[in-house]
Amino acid sequence: MTHRSPAAPLRRLTGLAPGLALAAAAAATGLVRRDKALHPVGHHGAGRLTLAKHAPGLGIPALDEAGTRSCRARWSRAMGLPQGWPDIEGLALRLPGAAPGGDDADLLFASTGEHPWSRYLLTLRPPRRFGRLTTLLPVRAGGRALTFGLSPVGGSGDDGLPPTSYVLEVSRGAGPWERLGELDVVWSQADTLDRFDPVARPLAGVEQYAFVAALREPAYVAARLVARARPTTEKRHHA
Known about the structure:
By secondary structure, the protein is an alpha+beta fold. The chain is built from 3 helices and 11 strands.
């Protein structure tokens, strides 16, 4: 049973105003562009997550047991800006059976800086340039704040697809990165209709901070509603 702090409702209200502002911006973008406001075009991938032999004891069953499990991934540019423009790199990861009750769980990563302070700042990258991605906003597990990261091993191939290998890491609080394992992905030129949402599909053992949920979820809801109301009418190209 999860025990919520008495201050949780106040923290949720604190995040609600900027969350609604982001939702309005996402809705306006989607209406103008006639497609998904966030991450409109991407690449789908079949992945394999291999966790290290020495589990870190995070209180997250899916990440505390050594071994290999299959997963699904989607790489995209967050704002869908025109070809040749810098954009925010995004990678969504779905772990089958890793949510409470055995449902699928999602983790979302975005391009950020390398330093302890810049891991919470989104970073624009030119097309076909790849680097560190983090979950940006922390989650709570085992009574502590955790941030997850992915570091690519090598660059992309001649086809311009994302890197096929990443190191999965975790940071406790603002501490150093600890290696959890490796993620290997076989990318496709095709996209997927799957919707990824770490608030609606959390990992078992993970709790979203009230402020984070209030900040993040309205924009996802608005983007989905607009996408259903005004589906894409023309093919968009990868940048």
